[in-house]
Amino acid sequence: MRASHDEVARPPAPAWRRYLTLLAKLGFMAAALWLVARHLDVPALGRTLGQARPGWLALAAALFTLSKLISSVRLNTFFRAVDIQLTERYNLRLYWLGMFYNLFLPGGIGGDGYKVYLLGKEFPGRRGLIFRALLLDRLSGMVALLVLLLALLALVPAAELRAAGALALPAWWRAVPLALLPLGLGLSYGLGRWGFGEFRSAFGRTSWEALGVQGAQVLCAWALLAALGAAGGPVLPYLLVFLASSIAAVLPLTVGGLGARELTFLYGAQLFALSAPVAVSVSVLFYVITALVSLVGALVRVQK
Description:
Elements: H1 15-38, H2 42-50, H3 54-81, H4 88-104, H5 111-122, H6 127-155, H7 158-161, H8 175-195, H9 203-227, H10 235-250, H11 260-271, H12 276-295
């Protein structure tokens, strides 16, 4: 009788491979930050950051924290769909500890790896399902990012898209992102049913939760723009670049997305003729908020 996928023990990756991956990420991050510093007026960036309004920063931190609370609930929805029963409180503690591991211990086990290890001991024979729940959680977040990106792209005024003189768009261009929205949603739903059929009962609820997560983070970026005194200008292009930077940060290229997000903001600012110091300041402040919120995970105990 063949062992099921859940019961197969996978050997851990060799230590040299983990360290080589970490060195590659650090190298890419350093190169990205060097490019940002080379093409940016660093004193202007410092002045912009120094003028940030504390009240708006506090609101941005609250919105980011809200996004993580919703994200924790979404992950537990996937767990419960395959009868992995965790209380919301325990799942939240585990989620926050995973955030800390992902950001501050990237060369070690990582947040997701720790969840697979710990929950695999609590639910023997279900490690494969736990891994698939975590993977589907990430994929649902990416789909929500793309949905919001297409929606904002259709809303941004054509004059702002052509501000840099780099985009000459025909009159019917808005039909493209609007048409891609239902097409992408239908494709993602079909692929989800095909590749993750055991989680089918959670698809509807987690889709809305994923949009709530990314929507709260978009509002967080808007609050950061307000903190920098830039919310009265062309806000939508900044938010469009923010969503693109969030997609770049998800890619496993740097440590905690640092460097990839800033580089995306820099080139996005150039494309849309935005203020580069303001754009990169949003990125820097978002990373600082992420780090501070994730640092709380170091104080978390995950015992039931």
